[in-house]
Every structure is written in C-alpha cells, then in structure tokens.
C-alpha cells in the first residue's frame, strides 16, 4: 500500500520543488513514524559460502 501512495506523491512534490527553484521539499511520512520501530526483516549476521569450481 505504501509503495503506491509514495509513488503518487512524487509528481506533486516534484512540481512544488520546481516551482520554487528546485528547493528540497519534505516528503510526507505515510506510516506515521511506524517505519522507525518496525522489526528487522533480515538477520544482522550473514554467512557467505564461496564455492569455486
């Protein structure tokens, strides 16, 4: 869901930025801060095995 909302926000935010000489524009947080406390999707430890043939 957030991907489609985020994609839809890019065009109007770009227009606002361009109208103001390419000034940076704050991007809205559609998750209301939940992205900061979400559980990790992957382990911090990654084991890599290199195989040579």
Structure summarized in a few sentences:
The protein is mainly α.
Task: Summarize the structure in words.
It is built from one helix and no strands. The protein starts with a helix and ends in a 34-residue tail after the last helix. The protein has one helix spanning 2-19. The radius of gyration is 19 Å and the shape is elongated. It is mainly alpha-helical and 53 residues long.
Could you give a short account of the major beta sheet?
none
- Tell me, what's the shape? elongated
Could you say which structural class the secondary elements and strand pairing correspond to?
A: mainly alpha
Radius of gyration: 19 Å
How far is it from the N-terminal to the C-terminal residue, by CA?
A: 44 Å
Task: Give the % helix.
Answer: 25-40%
Strand content: under 5%
Counted by DSSP, the helix tally is 1
Poorly predicted residue ranges: none
In round numbers, the mean pLDDT is 81
Number of strands: 0
Order of helices and strands: H
